[in-house]
Design brief:
- By secondary structure, the protein is mainly α.
- The protein contains seven helices and no strands.
Length: 113
């Protein structure tokens, strides 16, 4: 590899690529639990309520389980990083306010590990 390319190499991005299977696992678990089709694409512009909350939960789980930064999660969902931050905060707030929802997210988190 050329020396100038080595300096530009982002080792964190390589780790993220290796963890791509964690993204797929999280999306599969969320699809199943929210009864979305197996081929459902979370990056669609579908704004129906159950689809939005499924997307929010998937982004929250990805952040919590993989530690990906918000911009990288945004790229995965074809969303701006600020939208992912909002999704994360919506799930965190709803978990604090609704114990049943918190149990759902914790169960999904356990399934994704």
């Amino acid at each position: 590899m050329k020396p100038e390319l080595i300096r530009q190499f982002d080792s964190e991005w390589l780790v993220a690529l290796v963890r791509r299977d964690s993204l797929d696992r999280i999306l599969d678990v969320v699809r199943l639990d929210f009864r979305l089709p197996a081929n459902f694409d979370f990056s669609t512009k579908d704004n129906r309520g159950h689809v939005c909350i499924a997307r929010h939960v998937a982004a929250y789980l990805l952040r919590e389980l993989s530690g990906w930064p918000f911009p990288r999660i945004g790229i995965s969902f074809k969303r701006d990083h600020s939208t992912i931050v909002h999704s994360y905060e919506v799930v965190a707030r709803r978990m604090r306010q609704n114990p049943q929802f918190a149990r759902l997210v914790e169960r999904l988190m356990a399934e994704c590990k």
